[in-house]
Input
Amino acid sequence: MTGPMTTDRRPMLLMSPALLWLFGLMVVPCLLILVLAFFRRGMYGGIEYTFTLENIALVFDPLYAQIFLKSAWIAGLAAGIASILGYAAAYAIAAMPRHRQSALLFFAVLPFWSNYLVRTYAWIVLLNREGLIVNLARWIGFEGELPSMLYTEQAVVIGLVYNYLPFVILSCYAPLSRLNPEISEASRDLGASGWTTFRRVVLPMTVPGIATGFVFVFVLSIGNFVTPALLGGGQFQMIGNLVYAQFLTANDWPFGAALSMVLIMVMLGLLMAQATVADRASGGKAGDNG
Amino acid sequence: MTTPLLSLRDIKKNFGSAQAVAGVTMDIQRNEFFALLGASGSGKTTLLRMLAGFEAPSAGDILLEGASIAAMPPNKRPVNLMFQSYALFPHMTVAQNIAYGLEMDRLPKAEIKSRVSEILEVIQLGHLAGRKPDQLSGGQRQRVALARALVKRPKVLLLDEPLGALDKKLRSEMQLELKRLQHEFGITFIVVTHDQEEALVMADRVAIMKDGALLQVGTPREIYEYPETRFAADFIGVMNFLPVSVASGGYQGKEGPLIRATEAPELAGGSAAVAAIRPERLGVETQGENSLAGEITDIAYHGLDLLLHVKTPLAETPVISRLTADVAERLAPQVGQTITLGWSARDTRIFPA
Output
């Protein structure tokens, strides 16, 4: 064995614990799900080991496809709102003097240090029929019956946006803070207004950050089952709740696996789209060479 | 008399309590190639940014063709800046970068297209129009940045250290290239540089800046041959300084004959002064009113010329004499040899100590 060969192996050695972890706890279970999705459900739970495409077909049954679309709509709404709010916040933070930026980022990420459930329960207190927001509206002078805000689609979206906003702030802050201020100045110098500079230079150069944040929120939201259960109050199901139910209450593992598989495919597709966006905006080494 | 193209009236700029520019007044003419020369922190870049519109003067006024532009935002000024970092848009191709400024002017598509390809021809990068900035070399990026600013045909083109990021050989090529383009486009260039050679080679006029103020403004020859201050004399090129005291009819060094100078400021008799002589005016064979003997301590070979370091009784540091290659070859000087250097009274500058 020669010298350079040993140095070449060192990175592999360093990566192997993480790779083993990923392989054992991520790749293998995913493959199991993939396999499971093609078996028949046993009479009393259990799994009958005969090949079938019924489970996959059932996912596209209007009843379930509708839940899929609904989940995608809610996740998309949450991701869209979080992207706009997060980008604006990141833009403001990046425009601050350097020494203040790390403190502001710290505050933006602060909610992460507390438990997800606790944070979601806090929203129940806020959105309750006798909650803070309703009381505030009464105090301002709003009279009459207020519509309940809890256990609605909006409550779920609010909960998802709130919980995942810090991801977007971080993913947008990274490219915004790296932007050379001379680039914006060059655009102004060449005759562009502040808005045109933002639209044609700043936004396209930082769009990978938005794409990353959007996909993050979307992927985490579409599979989420805690927030819809607590803030949606079982009024409607999202795909996460459906999968949860198949595995833990309906005992239909093959169908749960089929649902999971389609969900994973959607997520992978989105991650690939996001990688393409990031690649194109970075100057497009892998993009067009024309 | 016609109005100057650009007129700076007592421009000042403060950042908090620090004064970056301390009252600059000057005129720049049409088609001039003007260089602002100074060390970092001299205020030259701040002055340039005020001309581009990125900083507002704390006091004073900037007139372009007689009208004030001090309050005009950068996107409205008929002035363009080529940034030190080039600041090319990484997500756009070379052609899109160059077209950007023309699109902002809302020119018809056909005209934008023809002007972009025309300037690509001038900078000889037509074959790379579809490339992104990341795929270009440093020299190519520099030319794209230049083209992007030039294509707008501004009244004044500002260049912030335009050749700073290039290697030495490319830099001297581009010095002449910039001069050619300036001549071809008939646009006034104002270049900020800390490189004196760059300023002397390219500019019609050079302004030396120090501590936010103009020290001297003049042609490269005036700046080099007739520095007005000891700082300017020291800052530009190499200069020998000999401490002297003012005597009648000349200047007395530590020992030896009086040093003669044709032109000199009025100084009180007996007061301390310095005599300054350029190395190329101080020669082994040079005949002149002045002479100085010393011992050669070092010989530095530079190809084109030879620098002799000569220890003399008149100064602590050795004086430097520059011999051209042919003279050096004929004389074959040796370290340790004692020689006599001569120079003319015309080439002696006197500054108060």
About this structure: Chain A is about 75% helix and 5% strand.
